[in-house]
Design brief:
five-stranded parallel sheet; globular; mainly alpha; 471 residues; DNA Cyclobutane Dipyrimidine Photolyase, subunit A, domain 3; Rossmann fold; DNA-binding; 21 helices
Length: 471
DNA sequence: TGAAATGTTGGGGCG
DNA sequence: ACGCCCCAACATTTC
């Protein structure tokens, strides 16, 4: 009986899983395996929120497999060694996986592929995470894109009709000895701070599809406006599901088309939403072609930028949501509580850290990495470099968000602020929106005075930027 | 997917 | 009726 190992990584789903599908088609049995190897991700081993998600996503994948009379074989340790051991123990002829795009993962997977082939094992890798591979999208001259809009035009016109693969039937699962229990991976936090996460999320393939269906029914038509209002569920909130591959972009596109086409009345335009998935593809495109971007400025002109000296006290207040600027604090507390933050607020808190506090973007990127359930090296890097002004197709540095104006515009009634800063719940919206005018009223609620004056710190940021040589 | 400063226009009050 | 000022509303420029 021919047997193949399906090495699951961040493709934690059974439907539209090209590696799983191909393995089931070509072999009599498959061994679904996950190897926990946090040391192999360079300096970006998953943060605590990601590990929480991963735990539950693995549990869900195992449960799905068991409904198909298979189970997930779990191991912890060196991927190359454990795969070789598994091949030896099971007599597997082949190993299948879906590709990752982080530089450290590419290096590791390349080495493993070569080593397995030298042992006479066939290896097959697939695209399970993107509409198109990073190297499939190129300018007319064959170069990678550095600007989003032409990238998006190219990508959008070449996706074609999505045809998601079904769950393989039957799924003839093999088992192997020496697997470990999920709990042994140690993914859950020692101190149980995860109640807010559990309340906000349902990791796994079915949770992802249900979220998408609700979004298609309620929100996608109004996305262009509703997505800017942080108190509303106007966004899809699919980011963590996409990161762990519980749903694929092809499934998202196919599902949206099916649900929108089958609906009476005017057909909502999904383009504004799909464009955001385009940003996700752009982020992967950039990380693949410019593998240093997760640590270095994409725009080298910013290598000489006069960041303020790293200040743990300032950064700490920002991290804990104690800056005294209500919209910033609401966002940082939402992040801490749920492992997620509304995108508009992400831009505001990032602008505040990198401009008003003039702390290097890497401090923010690292905190997001540790606290987001959707922490993704490609997306996180693009987002921070975009806000900081040093990235590809970035917002110009002088585009500095005024957190008070943003709150007045997008959180008019302060519902979002009051939700995450309950000590301000009884105040009229005007008070948090003009916090600098009301230090006494805020202090009476036990809320801090703004740690910086927004207008003055903005001027200092612009002055720092002017010290950069033109270019 | 900004904000603030600066410039322009046009309506209305008023002498 | 006219010029003048004020200012809101909008557009453009600058950071």
């Amino acid at each position: 009986m021919s047997l193949a190992i399906v090495w699951f990584r961040r493709d934690l789903r059974l439907a539209d899983n090209p590696a799983l599908h191909a393995a089931c088609a070509a072999h009599a049995q498959v061994l679904p395996a996950y190897i926990h190897a946090p040391d192999e991700e360079g300096s970006w081993s998953p943060g605590a929120a990601s590990r929480w998600w991963l735990h539950h996503s693995l549990a869900d994948l195992d449960a799905s497999l068991r409904r198909h009379h298979a189970e997930l074989h779990l191991r912890c340790g060196d991927s190359a060694r454990l795969l070789a051991e598994l091949v030896h123990a099971t007599g597997a002829e082949a190993v299948y996986w879906n590709r990752l795009y982080e530089p450290a993962a590419i290096d590791r997977d390349t080495r493993i592929k070569q080593a397995l082939r030298e042992q006479g094992v066939s290896v097959h890798s697939f695209n399970g995470a993107l509409w198109r591979e990073p190297w499939q999208v190129a300018t007319r001259t064959g170069d990678p894109y550095r600007v989003f809009t032409p990238f998006w035009r190219n990508l959008r016109d070449t996706i074609g009709e999505p045809r998601p693969l079904p769950v393989p039937q039957p799924l003839r699962g093999a088992t192997a000895a020496d697997g470990v229990a999920l709990e042994a991976l140690g993914l859950l936090p020692g101190i149980r701070w995860d109640a807010g996460l559990a309340q906000a999320w349902r990791p796994g393939e079915r949770g992802a599809m249900e979220l998408l269906e609700v979004f298609a029914d309620d929100a996608v038509g109004d996305y262009a406006q509703a997505r800017d209002v942080p108190s509303r569920h106007g966004t899809s909130r699919l980011s963590p599901h996409l990161h762990f591959g519980e749903i694929s972009p092809h499934q998202v596109l196919a599902t949206l088309r099916r649900l929108l086409d089958g609906r009476p009345g005017p057909r909502p335009d999904p383009e504004p939403f799909l464009r955001e998935l385009g940003w996700r593809e752009f982020a992967h495109h950039l990380l693949y072609h410019f593998p240093e971007t997760h640590t270095s400025n994409f725009n080298p002109k910013f290598d000489g930028f006069p960041w303020a000296k790293a200040d743990d006290a300032l950064i700490g207040r920002w991290q804990r949501g104690r800056t005294g600027i209500p919209l910033v604090d609401a966002g940082m507390r939402e992040l801490w509580h749920t492992g997620w933050m509304h995108n508009r607020v992400r831009m505001v808190v990032a602008s505040f850290l990198t401009k008003n506090l003039r702390q290097h973007w890497r401090h923010g990127a690292r905190w997001f990495w540790d606290t987001l359930v959707d922490a993704d090296l490609a997306n996180n890097t693009l987002g921070w470099q975009w806000v900081a002004g040093c990235g590809a197709d970035a917002a110009p540095y002088f585009r500095i968000f005024n957190p008070y104006l943003q709150a007045a515009r997008f959180d008019r009634d302060a519902a979002y602020i009051k939700r995450w800063i309950p000590e301000l719940a009884a105040l009229p919206a005007k008070v948090p929106h003009e916090a600098w005018k009301h230090p006494a009223a805020l202090a009476a609620c036990g809320y801090p005075t703004p740690m910086v004056e927004v207008a003055a710190s903005r001027d200092m940021a612009l002055a720092a930027w002017r010290r950069l040589p033109a270019g």
